[in-house]
Amino acid sequence: MTAMQTVPRAAADGGTGGSRGVAPANGATRPGEREARRRAQRIRQQLVAWGFIAPVAIYMVVFYAYPLFRNLDLSFRDYTLASFITGEAPLVGIANYLEVFRSPTFWPALGNTAVFTLGSIVVQFALGLALAVFFYRRFPLSTTLRALFLVPWLLPLLVSASIWAWMLNSDSGVVNAALAVFGIPQVNWLTSPQTSMLGVLIANIWIGIPFNLVIMYSGLQNIPDEVYEASSLDGANGWQTFWRITFPMLRPVSAITLLLGLIYTLKVFDIIWIMTRGGPGDSSTTFAIWSYRLGFGGGSPDLSPAAAVGNLLIVIAFVFGIIYIRTQRTTEDAS
Amino acid sequence: MTARTKRILTSVVGVILTAIMLFPLYWMVNVSLTQPDRLRKDPPDLFPVSPTFDGYARVVQDQLPYLFTSLVVGLGTVVLTLVLSAPAAYALAKLRPRGGRVVDFVMLIAQMIPGIIMAMGFYLIFYTWGLLDSIPGLILADSTLAVPFGVLIFTAFMSGIPDELMSAAKIDGAGAWRTFRSVVLPISRNSVVTVSLFTFLWSWSDFLFASTVNRGGGLQPITIGIYRYIGNNTQDWNAIMATAVVASIPAAVLLVVAQRYVAAGVTAGAVK
């Protein structure tokens, strides 16, 4: 690739050099020499540049590509406890994947992953956008309050998950105590299969609001004031301005926020694991949880099926990742 | 209604919204100060009636080694991330390497890989290399959370440094490394702070890698400390929440000291 790019460009440069070299009859070799020197310099420059990049490039191969490869390899083998000692595991083809597809956990996990991901990003986005619009009005204290809104996003996920686990506790949780004031009977948030998904969703939405708020706020800042001036001159009210002007102009930022939210939410593990461990039963088990439970959830590790589940997750993440990058590119081109 | 009262009313609404948003944090502090025998009270006390610091005494008694491990791992991850990402970003931003766009693309994609997949790969690799249950192993694993982010943030920032500065350094006889160290790095101080803060926070907060590649180690981070509490003794929420408060300190410090860097980091990660 590199060589192929170099050759035509050198030829093209040589061509112009040659045509220029026609006038001075004695300078026939000099453009060639200069060209060679320039090429040597270019190669040197490339070497220096790649010298700076080399450590990270090697790092990415050893600590990203290699683990990914090992994971892929793992999913096509039957890796058992004995394999740790012998270092050998028989190839079993797609048996692990078939086992995963046939597992009674597969469909619930797929459904839960979809509900958890879509539920999270839609609500986070709606609340984040509403708050961004609210804070954009710049009232006294607005900067400080907006900063405080970031806190949940900065906390260790494990901390947030623990707080919510206790707040949603059936007997002693403050959420049920608050509901009781309105006469709502005790909800077994995390211990009943009907509500466990809702419980972890609430916690995850809380954590995701700050991110959406910050990004949508920066999106609002990029809308020129003149647009609002024009719309108020035309007599539009706040509601009309939002739906006819603000929201359409935020489309590119919104797309990126939603896609990033989607990619991040697919990966969520800590929150669900701390709050419910994917239970009761499989009622809050997503692909990430299922994979972890198979591999590290206690009992004998079932690394090969765990890797297979993980690889399904990565396929989903990559599909949306590609959409994200394409969206970002078109946004950049448009602006 | 005058514009002034309207603005003040908006402030009041803003304070209420913030209070609702931060209520779980208040609750964490409240529970951390509540007497264990009052924890199961129904309805729960809305503020610590007779506050106790027993929970925090438990933290000092049980959790100091975990906190120390987290600090070491966090700092190690920051150093590794900076050393790897800043020079590479300089080259990507200013030295026009062939294939630079591919590197950028790889960094974007790398951030999308679910941690659980990396964790399984690391588990096998570290088993072979004897890095399981070790601090260096955890630092290496945690650094994968931050290195692609670091490269992208640094590249975005360093692209904005005027080329004239580079040319000036070159005329003065500085090589690429000298230019990087004496010109580019000092100017990039803000992005160094941003990357360091986020890297430390992610490493400090990591539970997934800690619970896989360091599940049986003698030195484990604070996230495992809390997890042990939850697993061992679900009655002891007073001590769990006290640990949670202590584990939240870096986030709080970060927000107070470096709020503008935080917002910059969030936005830079998404919309460059």
Under CATH at level 1, the class of chain B stands as Mainly Alpha
Structural class of chain A: mainly alpha
**Name given to the CATH homologous superfamily of the largest domain in chain A:** MetI-like
Poorly predicted tracts of residues of chain A: 1-25
Range of strand content of chain A: under 5%
Number of spatially distinct domains of chain B: 1
Order of helices and strands of chain A: HHHHHHHHHHHHHHHH
What does this structure look like?
The complex is a heterodimer of chains A (335) and B (272). Chain A is an all-alpha fold and 335 residues long. Helix content of chain A is 75%, strand content 0%. Chain B has 272 residues and is mostly helical. Chain B has a single domain (57-270), classed as Orthogonal Bundle (MetI-like fold). Chain B is built from 14 helices and no strands. Chain B has helices at 3-32, 54-94, 100-110, 115-129, 135-143, 147-159, 163-171, 176-187, 189-205, 208-213, 222-232, 237-247, 249-257, 259-270. In chain B, helix 1 (3-32) packs across helix 12. At the A-B interface, helix 2, helix 5, helix 6, helix 7 and helix 8 of A face helix 1, helix 2, helix 3, helix 4 and helix 9 of B.
